[in-house]
Amino acid sequence: MTILYVFAAILLFGILITVHEAGHFFAARLSKIPVREFAIGFGPKILKWHSKKHETEFYLRAIPLGGYCAFYGEDDTTGEFKDDPRAFNNFGVGKRLFTIIMGPVMNLVLAFVVAILLFTLSGIPVPDGPHVTMVHAVNDGGAAQAAGIQPNDYILSLDGQPVTDNLTELLDAAESGQTREIVVQRLVDGQMQDITLSITPAYNPAENKNMIGIMMSIAQPLKMVPGSFQQIVQNALEMSYRAASMVVNAIKNLITRGEGAGEVAGVVGITKMIVDEIQRTQLQGYLYLMVVISINLGLMNLLIIPGLDGSRIVFLLIEAVRGKPISKEGYVHAAGMIFLFALMILITFRDVVRLF
């Protein structure tokens, strides 16, 4: 069964990369830009087909973890295609910009379409009860620790008032230093039990409110129900936006603070994550990961790193302003690709070491 899950993970990679490269391919066709090669996968070729009309070689290769859409004269550092009318640089900046940007765009479109499929199959989430407040962590020396509150406790009430998403307001409803009665729900010997505790909140002048020294999360129970097409589309847009925001914030924190550098995963690490998620949540988890990873692939490709689409877009914009291309652009992208392959090998090696 695990082998089937691994194949499912590989299929996910294949779909995402094929859609990305197909975005470049069909944009080029619409722009009348010749495509030299279009390949799904890397390594030894399994199938080959030549389009005489468009002079394009199509390949299906043995390793389904990549793909490419190659143009005539793209990153030409030897001058081989200098006088070839099919060369990529012979076409207008607008056409080339459209061709490059449609790769990442198609990943974003795919994520949205898959999100629609996910909510069509599983239904849309609707509230199923009031908000609940759970304790994630208890600060040392704080009022919560002194009262006996523990991580994973659910706070049910304060002075007889139900706690939903209103704990902060309830804490400020009485003077600081006053002993209050708090009821928490805790798992004890396999059963949930309500426990009544006495707690004395302390006033925090920096926050200008009473605090008990916890990190908490507030969530609302949800249930899945069939939704209208409009509701499905709205939920799909919201999921895609949240996933994109999560990716953008992760990239920003990685670049500015170095956060998450040790958690970056390559093909092996992501495959393991996909397999684990499929085993736990089956099809729904698979579709959710396809949404997140597709958005990740699209946005990561827009980073201004030589070899990636984002860098090519910047060079095209500079060319549009200057009126002519930068002569050493091909060398920059070639060096970038070498760096990216080396980084990929390093991350993959680290993923393998983590497995053992």
Write the layout of secondary structure elements.
Blueprint: H1 2-30, E1 35-51, E2 56-71, H2 93-122, E3 124-127, E4 132-138, H3 143-147, E5 154-158, E6 161-162, H4 167-171, E7 180-188, E8 191-199, E9 202-204, E10 209-211, E11 214-219, E12 222-225, H5 229-257, H6 267-300, H7 309-322, H8 329-355
Antiparallel strand pairs: 1-2, 3-12, 4-5, 4-11, 5-6, 5-7, 7-8, 9-10
Helix pairs in contact: 1-2, 1-6, 2-5, 2-6, 2-7, 5-6
Short descriptors:
about 350 residues, alpha+beta, Pdz3 Domain, 2 domains
Could you describe the 3D structure shown?
This protein is α+β, with helices and mostly antiparallel strands and 356 residues long. It folds into 2 domains: 2-122 and 266-355, no CATH class; 132-220, PDZ domain (Pdz3 Domain, Roll), CATH 2.30.42.10. Helix content is 49%, strand content 24%. It is built from 8 helices and 12 strands. The strands form 4 sheets. Strands 4, 5, 6, 7, 8 and 11 form a 6-stranded antiparallel sheet that branches. A hairpin with a 4-residue loop joins strand 9 and strand 10 (209-211). Helix 1 runs parallel beside helix 6, helix 2 packs across helix 5 (229-257) and helix 5 crosses helix 6. The protein is elongated.
